[in-house]
Amino acid sequence: MAWTTPRLDPERSRRRLQLLAELAGARSVRQRQRPQRVRTERLRELIATRRRIAG
């Protein structure tokens, strides 16, 4: 008996492609926000350091 791959349900394929597109979009948003988060964290570190020195 030959091995056959089952055909995917078209609705399932559509949902899978939609999910992959949403994941890719979320990833690109995270990558755009990352530099802002790094700047914010660095600024917080500088403020904390200044408070330790001044306090």
Arithmetic mean of pLDDT: 85
Q: Helix amount, in percent? A: over 70%
Number of helices: 1
Structural class by SSE content:
mainly alpha
Poorly predicted regions: none
Spatial separation of the terminal alpha carbons: 80 Å
The string of secondary-structure elements, in order, is H
Integer-rounded radius of gyration: 24 Å
Oligomer: single chain
| Proportion of residues in extended strands | under 5%
Number of strands: 0
Summarize the biggest pleated sheet. none
Q: How would you describe the shape?
A: rod-shaped
Question: Topology of this protein?
Answer:
Blueprint: H1 10-54
Please describe what this structure looks like.
The structure is a single chain. By secondary structure, the protein is mostly helical. The protein contains one helix and no strands. The chain has one helix spanning 10-54. The mean pLDDT is 85.
Task: Give the tags.
single chain; 1 helix; mainly alpha
Write a brief structural summary.
The protein has 55 residues and is mostly helical.
